[in-house]
Amino acid sequence: MPNLLDIRRRIKSTKNTQQITKAMKMVSASRLRRTSERAMGARPYAERLEAVHASILARLPEADADLYQKKEGKTLIVVLAGDKGLCGAFNSNIFKAAEQMVAKRGAENCMLMTIGKKPTQHFRRHPAEIYETFSDIFRDVTYTLAENIGHILVKAFTNDECGRVVLLYNKFRNVLVQEVTEQPLLPLAPETKDDAVAHTGVEHLAEPSLQEILEDLAPRVVTTQVYQALLESCASEHAARMTAMDAATNNAKDMIEKLTLEMNKARQAAITTELIEVVSGAAAL
């Protein structure tokens, strides 16, 4: 049986860990409220923009812009994960999905853009080519950041550096559920015309022309989808960390109770031993 000093040290260490996990849970809960509100608030705009985009495409015989042309070439996978750990399976689920995508297509046919410190570190020695990296960005997700990333992706596609761009991120459902989402980004593939018209339900009057509007709208659609993915991933990270830290805090509490019981048993055994020694000594006299 461990001695009392060792047990007391373990209890103190576990209490210190519990304080840390509890503080991290509270910080993530505070940030989750703000980030989830931003993600949920941006969804109607992104969905409406995609609906208008689909409606315009449905009324054009063919989209001539470069962002709509199917091309041969590598697949550029944009991997969005976290800047920090201690968030359960949030990062590992994305890593696993990205590795499966690369294995399916072949490392020689894929490029990776990593967004977040963790995916940048994880894929540093991966056989697939690293096209671009971003780290320490999730503390303040801005539309300007999404514009910069979208500009890089559009440039890579229009310069024929890749033939397809895919977003891979955790979509925020609720505090307990974050869904790994694989979202094709480029080329901008339209819905079927019947679905697009039924989805919007309105006829758009366009000046000067639908084609010119589409050429201006296409980069905005890309940027908006990137921005929404960043917001969803950020909210999902805080939700996953809050859940993980809550579980860690509860586990620390259970461990403290178990160690306290073990300490009391050890102390009682030590007292009993001393009493037996005293009684035995007295009997010997």
Task: Describe the secondary-structure layout.
Blueprint: H1 4-58, E1 75-80, H2 90-105, E2 110-115, H3 117-122, E3 129-134, H4 143-158, E4 164-172, E5 178-186, H5 193-200, H6 210-284
Parallel strand pairs: 1-2, 1-4, 2-3
Antiparallel strand pairs: 4-5
Helix pairs in contact: 1-5, 1-6, 4-6
Report on the structure:
This protein has 285 residues and is of the alpha/beta class. The protein has 2 domains: 4-22 and 244-280, Helix Hairpins; 24-239, ATP synthase, F1 complex, gamma subunit (Pyruvate Kinase, Chain: A, domain 1, 3-Layer(aba) Sandwich). Helices cover 62% and strands 13% of the residues. A 5-stranded mixed β-sheet has the order 3-2-1-4-5.
Total individual domains? 2
CATH class of the largest domain: Alpha Beta
N→C terminal distance = 31 Å
Number of helices: 6
Q: Tell me about the biggest sheet?
A: 5 strands, mixed
Shape: elongated
Question: Could you say what the CATH topology of the largest domain is called?
Answer: Pyruvate Kinase, Chain: A, domain 1
CATH architecture of the largest domain: 3-Layer(aba) Sandwich
Give the topology string: H per helix, E per strand.
Answer: HEHEHEHEEHH
Radius of gyration equals 28 Å
- Indicate the mean pLDDT: 86
Please tag this protein with its features.
6 helices, Helix Hairpins, alpha/beta, 285 residues, elongated, single chain, Pyruvate Kinase, Chain: A, domain 1, 2 domains, 62% helix, five-stranded mixed beta sheet
